[in-house]
Amino acid sequence: MISRRHILKSALLTTLIGLPAVRGSGALAAPPGAPRKPLDEQDATAEMLGYRQDARKVDPKEYPAYHSGQSCSSCALIETGTARMRGCSVFPGKLVSAAGWCSSWQQRVAKK
Fold this sequence. Notes:
This protein is an alpha+beta fold and 112 residues long. The chain has 3 helices and 3 strands. It has helices at residues 4-17, 19-24, 44-48, and strands at 37-38, 85-87, 94-97. Mean pLDDT is 84; it is low at 21-28.
């Protein structure tokens, strides 16, 4: 049986996955040069997606999709680089911790 909560999270996730295309069109993009602030775990979208600044603090019982070793730094949705705080297409205009995690996590595919 699928819970209503699971259906709502899936619908939100599907919507958020489509945001990079909308963001690229300028509809949701921050103005060029606008400073980006770190994402707060209390942000409504962050709460809904279970964002944690430290992936080790994710409750696997609450988020069964989480597996030890997953973090924003290995996610396909975060900006590439080595900075501790980086932009993420799920949270436009915000910076996420590379050591963090949310339920939108997608494995980055290694380039050949």
